Amino acid sequence: MKKERAQLSRRKFVTGTTGVAVSAMIIPRHVLGGAGYQAPSDTVHFALIGCGGQGKTDSGELIQGGQKMVAMCDVDYGYVDREIDRMTRPRPMGGRPGGPNAPTPTPEQAARMQQMQQQQLARAQQLKEAYQSAKRYTDYRKLLEERKDIDAVVIATPDHTHAVIGKAAMELGKHAYIEKPLTWSIQEARVLREVAARTGVVTQMGNMGHSSEGAALINEWIQAGILGKVTEVHIWTNRPVNFWPQGVPRPQASAAAPPAAGAQGRDWSARRVNQALVQAMGAEGVPAGVDWDLFLGPAPEVPYHGIYHPFNWRGWVDWGTGAVGDMGAHLIDHPYWALGLTYPKSVEATFSPFGLDDQNRPVSYPLASQIVYHFPARGAAPPVKLVWVDGGLMAPRPAALPDDVALNPGGGAIFIGEKGILVHGTYGANPQLYPQSLHEAAARVPKTFFRVAKSGEGQFAQALHRMNWIHAIRGREKAICSFDYASRLTETMLLGCVAMRAGQGKRLYWDGQAGQITNDPSANQLLHREYRKGWTL
Question: What are the distances in angstroms from CA 368 to CA 186, 237, 323?
């Protein structure tokens, strides 16, 4: 009984409740153990679900911040362990940051880089120890059933399982950090928003650029009217090129050989190339240690292939949301937030071909796409046209951009206003105003937006996005990207996926309040999915 009461006291603290009862529990650190001491009641016990990819970074920040990972869950611990071993292997420093043509680092820069590498290795070793000590599970349902000692969950699984895991955890009163995109479907995003509001748990989506200094500056400059009225935004990313495959056909267990090529290769049509690719991929058995059925979760039954897992699931319709689902949370986020956008009133898409299966059904997202969103006016703010391109395509250069300023081919955004333009990189990085004279006015704009704490200095500073969530659980801060905001951003991103799947040459009209496409009833079937037998939301 005493143990139960002690546990309840700690758990009451981490619910984020404020008041005299909670305040009385907090004993100053200097009283208990001197500088740097963390009282047990300060520690959030969390479970990591999805451990081999982004989950490493998420849990690493929390562990560095003094939180305790007590349990973990993954369907492929062989991959998880290989990734952790890779992180803890020292790598020789060589070359120049920024490429062979970049200036040679100064002795001070070289020393700083070496120090950072040593710190990274130390953090990786600490993470490896946490991974070794946490109780391992393969099925998240068993973890949630058995572990009554966890206060929170970090979910970094493929997109298609975010909703089922997140909903189950929140309904048990667990605070939830879910990687971007929040969900696989629009309906799932709405469900998670409702559950979060009903249960009162503290939530955060894993788009760390939302906590960056650039994000705060973009908000302050736009809302101070530095650009005047903004009517257009252009966004681009190089994903998925050189990151994961898209526009490729589904592997088949017994693919027929393509017909022989004619003289001088005249029969090498796109269709024949895809047939040859399917045959070359062949079939692969499930590797030992991989629970493929749990990987599939609520998605349709599909035989395992190495082109799906690990990581490459992102480009496949069954499990991922393509480039816009991956990078929209880092790029659409900033104009959506700073301009106070609501639901778009319409969306349309044009794109290169989807990858198909043997029934000619779309199974992998196009290699490149353009998605156009039309947002309505908000009070005195005018309507906004937002154009997204990916797959190596780039935004057109606006007239206000100086000829000697190169756009980053990796990705970025351009706000076009009546007084000039704002250009920023992925994650809201390095926002710049043109003409340059706008920076004089921007320098006078007060810093009114909340700043998330950072680690590191200058160009090496990193926003502690996950720790902001922890501080919100403790009742000390507000979560900067809770599901109330993140779900609406996710819906907007995923409308781009719906527009692609609905087909070329269409404009879909969206009633955001009702959650319905009003001019194409068949497209409403793309807002949700039929779960595999045995799975419900």
Answer: 22, 10, 9
Q: What share of the chain is helix, strand, coil (3-state, %, to 5)?
A: 40, 15, 45
- HSE (side-chain half, CA atoms, 13 Å) at 103: 5
Q: Report residue 355 as tokens.
A: 């990858």
Of residues 326, 400, 341, the one with CA closest to residue 376: 341
Q: Coil, strand, or helix at residue 308?
A: coil
Q: Distance between CA atoms of 501 and 365, rounded to whole angstroms?
A: 9
Burial 46-85 (b: 16+ CB within 10 A, else e): bbbbbbbbbbbebbbbbbbbebbbbbbbbbbbebbbebbe
Assess whether pLDDT exceeds 80 at residue 102: no
* pTM to 2 decimal places: 0.90
Give the pLDDT confidence of 235-256 residue by residue, as tens digits.
999 999 999 999 999 998 765 5
Q: What are phi and psi of 95, to 5 degrees?
A: 70, -165
Amino acid identity at 373: Y
The tens digit of pLDDT for each residue in 430-462 reads 999 999 999 999 999 999 999 999 997 776 689
Output the pLDDT for position 461: 81
Other C-beta atoms within 10 Å of 521: how many?
Answer: 9
CB 421 within 8 A of CB 398: yes
- Among all chains, which residue has been given the structure tokens 């105003």? 433
Label residue 111 exposed, middle or buried (CB < 10 Å: 0-12, 13-18, 19+): exposed
Angle at 233 between CA 230 and CA 235, to 5 degrees: 160
DSSP 219-252: HHHHHTTTT-SEEEEEEEE-TTTTTS--S-PPP-
Which has the closest alpha carbon to 49: 149, 121, 135, 133?
135
Distance between CA atoms of 501 and 515, rounded to whole angstroms?
17
Helix, strand or coil for residue 113?
helix
CA-atom Rg of the chain in angstroms: 24
What is the mean pLDDT of the segment spanning 11-30?
Answer: 39
Contact yes or no for 372/232 (Cβ under 8 A): no
In this structure, how many other beta carbons lie within 10 angstroms of the beta carbon of residue 321?
27
Two tokens, residue 401: 């951009």
Q: Structural domains in the chain?
A: 211-292+321-474+487-527 (3.30.360.10)
Length of the chain: 537
- The rounded distance, in Å, linking the Cα atoms of 255 and 492 is 38
